[in-house]
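Example record for the data management plan.
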Amino acid sequence: MRKVILWMVVILCGFLLSPLFSDGEKWEKVSKDFRDVMKNPRAGVKEIIEVVQRMAALNDRRAVGELIKETLFHKEFEVRKATFSGLAKTSDEKAIEVIVRSCATENEEDRKYILLRLVSRFKTKGAMEVLLKAAESGDWRHRLIAAEKLVDFKDELLAKNRLKSLSEDKNLLVRYYGLKGMAIVDEKSKMPDEFKRGTEFVEGRFLPEVIYSDTLAVFVDFSNDMDVEMALPEREIIKRLKEMEKEKEKKEKPEPPKKKDGKEQPAADEIEKEKEKEYRRNFVVSRLKYAKQEVLDFLERLPKGVKVKLYRVSSSLRGYSDKAVEVTKNELEGMKKFLDSGVPGPARNWELALRAAFEDAAVDTVLLVGCGSADGSRYDDYEEFLKWFEERSWARGIRLHIWGIRADYEAGFGDDIEILKWNKKNEAEVGFLRRLAQLGGGGCGILDHRGKVPIPEIPKEEPKKEEPKKEEPKKEEGKKDSK
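Corresponding structural encoding:
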């Protein structure tokens, strides 16, 4: 019996200790494979990524240290991306601490930004301390991460105090997220009215009410494709109908036309043609004309303090000004003249536009307004362009929003084959724009209706109720004024 019990104890101990040995063996095996691959000058990207994923799966502090040292800042972007993805899944406390320490001791700003993005995923005391320090950085990208993520430590007084200082930051975008954070961690804190407006891109309609940014670069497509005519969206048709009503009221009412005996009434097709002309005259504009007006209205709505760089994009890039400017009344008039003076050209070089944004360290947000994918750049292929953008923006921290204007009036009147071709092209272009905005961490709104937009009824405005006048108390007879 004693022998049986002894054997059971031995087996149980072996079972409990076996994972320790197997983990050690795994580390020896995987780390050796990793070192061999990294030393091999002929190792391909796929081979490196495979061994990176195996190292990350160990969830071990030694593996994390090797990955940060060897592959997180590798020359090949796909390797960097795979390393980041693997490290982001780290759950072992000691392994997380290695990431935190690496971030705390890193001095190069772009590398520190990448490490901060990793650290911000963890909710350890060490991660909080790194974020507290990032809140005092001279780099707005570091302070922005702190403003977004310190809210995860809302029970800590130091985190609250640092969020308070970020809610007063000189950078408007950092300040916005600092205020959002304070509204969560402190019941007494409220978002100022100027920061309560909607930032959503509304499908099939128009630009968001506002985009919060400190320095915003706006690129407007001036390619020949923007000359394509489109029917106005319903919202704009209603606005136009109201304008037409006012114009009618101003004019004298003409006498109704007298019927002439024996003259035939206009044929039905002639009446339809006249209606078509009237619709086109009142409710059809070029994509560019519509885009220019929407952009100007959007710029006028921006919060005080947002600085803007406005560009026209075709085969070349033309800027409104060398420096970012606040949108005052005078600047808005200048921007209108700048957009109106532009002439559409044969290309839509989004690469040129985005390079300009990447090279301006102050730009934190980009808005592309146009009718399609890159045309006339080195990366006209959808996948090539997306890959180029993801790599360039990896350590840049720019948020990219897109408003795609694909609406096409004539496309509503083609035959089945033409409509099928248009739909296929539109699906590909819209898909590209959505993916690009997703990679840029921003919103995407698409306006892509074909043909006519039905004329809606003008919503009746309810008459304003007049407040009843207060009656003055009557003077009693025989009493004089006290004055």
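Summary line stored alongside the record: The first helix runs from residue 2 to 39.
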